[in-house]
Hints:
alpha+beta, Alpha-Beta Plaits
Amino acid sequence: MLRAYDAMFILDGSSDEEAIEKQLKSIAADVERVEGRFEQHRVVGRRNFARVLNRRSDGVYINARLMVDPAQVDELRRRLGLNADVFRMQILRADEKNPVAVNPPEAPVAAATEERD
């Protein structure tokens, strides 16, 4: 039985758009090797790190929704850990009550600032 998982990946910050798509295909191939599905993804953007990590100062953040057998999650983490394209990752079981975690609605910034005044 496949379960939904939300994943966050940090890819190398020096990658261009074409390289990011190639890296996403590599990640999707790893997911398919453990008989899972790479459902959807959202490129959050390039962010600077708080400090330099492994001679890198920034990375491209990606949120993804995966469908994976719970027994295969550890194997998927192992495979992605060996993937040179993935700098950091986190895989969490998706909240069934929030099916749009990958594409959250835009927060109303103006309303949040008005409440503080």
